[in-house]
Write a structure and sequence with these properties.
Layout (H helix, E strand, L loop, with lengths): L1 H9 L5 E2 L4 H10 L3 E2 L19 H12 L3 E3 L3 H7 L12 H4 L2 H9 L1 H9 L4 H24 L3 E3 L16 H12 L4 H15 L17 E4 L13 E6 L2 E4 L5 H5 L1
Parallel strand pairs: 1-2, 2-3, 3-4
Antiparallel strand pairs: 5-6, 6-7
Helix pairs in contact: 2-3, 4-8
């Protein structure tokens, strides 16, 4: 890992490494990689119980990442997307009509049992849902710990993360923001993570991340204030890409079909 990190940095690259387990985060935090591209939701032999107290062994790993300023991408929607396979009602969300073609939604609805079985086999849905809700809570409580203790938390979704209809591209980023708020991350931090802080982490802040003269004009114009309401990110008036204004409705899957 030291050799990979040295080679990456010699070429002005950012070293982002996959890892979601206690063992992986322990290794990567001590290796001082730039970014760990998953939250620590897999606690190994440890479990989040009704006290909602993080085990000391988990805290120690998170503290190392905080001390070494390792970027931490929580990617909460990875677990939630898998958990969506236990709940076919996810496919009835009217927002999906703008995200996925109707034929694809129909395909998913007619294949929910097969998709579930491909991932979870014959395990009862209620048991899988209970376990994945716990794992999701472990991810959220770790994210809050990282924030509360000055960790370098970043925005990311790992979309699509697995064979599931629960991680729809684009929309999944919005769902990630909702989960971050549920985890207790302030709206101001969510905005910063999704803009300037990610740009800095990937060495793109000279061109992206803020609205300034000379930077790329990639902008969302919103009808609500994202510092007051997280649903502002789904209240988009206009999309600007490299200075070209585009009507949001032109991106709707429903609009294309009509």
């Amino acid at each position: 890992m030291e050799e990979i990190k040295r080679e990456a940095h010699n070429n002005n690259l950012v070293l982002a490494v996959h890892g979601n387990s206690l063992e992986a985060h322990d290794f990567l935090g001590n290796a001082q990689v730039d970014i760990i591209a998953h939250g620590l939701w897999n606690w190994g032999n440890y479990r989040l119980d009704s006290t909602k107290v993080i085990p000391e062994e988990i805290k120690n790993v998170l503290d190392t990442e905080i001390e070494n300023k390792v970027g931490y991408m929580a990617t909460l929607q990875v677990i939630n997307g898998l958990n969506a396979l236990t709940n076919p009602d996810f496919l009835n969300d009217p927002e999906l009509e703008h995200v996925l073609p109707s034929g694809l939604i129909d395909y998913y609805k007619s294949n929910v049992d097969g998709m579930y079985a491909n991932v979870f086999g014959g395990a009862p849905r209620n048991i899988i849902a209970t376990n994945f809700n716990r794992i999701s809570d472990q991810g959220k409580i770790n994210l809050k710990y990282m924030y509360d203790h000055g960790g370098n938390i970043l925005f990311g979704t790992d979309t699509p993360s697995s064979p599931t209809y629960g991680n729809p591209p684009g929309f999944n980023g919005y769902l990630e923001m909702l989960e971050m708020q549920h985890a207790g991350i302030p709206l101001s931090k969510i905005l910063a993570m999704a803009t300037i802080e990610n740009a800095k982490a990937f060495k793109l802040d000279k061109e992206y991340g803020t609205v300034e003269t000379g930077k790329k004009a990639n902008i969302l114009l919103l009808n609500k204030n994202p510092l007051q309401d997280v649903t502002a990110y789904n209240a988009i008036e206009q999309v600007v890409i490299h200075g070209v204004p585009l009507n949001r409705k032109t991106f709707s899957a429903k609009g294309i079909e009509e």
